[in-house]
Write the structure tokens for this entry.
Amino acid sequence: MSALQFKGYAIEDTSDWEKFKLIEFEPKPFGDTDVEIKIHYCGVCGSDVHTITGGWGKPNLPLIVGHEIAGIVTRVGPKVSTFKAGDRVGVGAQVCSCGHCHLCNHNNEQYCHKIVGTYNSKYESGIATQGGYSTGIRCDERFVFPIPDNLKLEEAAPLFCAGLTVFSPLVRNGTGPGKKVGIVGIGGLGHLAIQFAKALGADEIVVFSHSTRKQEDALELGGTKFVVTEDGFETALRASLDLILCTANVASGVRLNEFITTLVPGGRFVMVALPDEALPSLGASTLVTGTYYGGSLLGSKQEAVQMLKLASEKGIKPWIEVLPMSDAGKAVRNVKDGKGRYRYVLKQDIDQ
């Protein structure tokens, strides 16, 4: 696959963010530790929509988004030790870090200050990164993940961002037998968070939503209790949950003060979604309840491998709708409008 054979669907104007244009682009130079991947599928993430609409600020244009990539290795650099041509692999939202800082050396490479995102980012050389709505990608083997044989490529794709983003805080905060977990929001992230919490053995999984519309889905996915976040919802749950993951992609419905009162002392509220708008403010009295409030970004490669193993063993699968990659505009519009149930995956259809 030569440089000229890398093609993808790009956005050229944030005011026309549903209009994708097929362009050619130059990938990073092929390095000794690089893996080159022919992309077969790419999940559509809320991050893609935040970026192409300008919700997170002005992006580098033209821009090819997509960081839930699944495909086949086409070649590897001479120093690559873990992959070979023909392997089934995935790439998530990160393609590089410094590789030698304390964070990188202790399975926290996603927090490295020199993180390079899969798209809308730049390597130190100045080369811009382009994402998975495309024919191929090159990146360091540290950020390539092996896909178990019993996971379909299209079902594995959403795990590399949505799956890892919820799996990491679940395991880092001790989800397992004896724990009670709350999940806020039932969407691309939330529907996987419910499944992983169940697979990790949580005793109770309380699913919070603003209406009853997704109640049946929440219980089918593994939730043990469904709570509509209407006035006073927190009263019956005070000091009962060990962990809450907030996957809600809008700030207006996130009742932070109420949610935090449902945590036991030492319990944690972890934000994994990144809405465009500022979150509601917290009252000082909420912060002196012995609870903790914070966030989590992506996950490490070590956690990605653990996640894929668990998904393989427990049959965890995202609920997906597959569309041709040329329908990217339709997919991002539906994500923006909250119509996905619960992840769109784009299938490669670019003539190579």
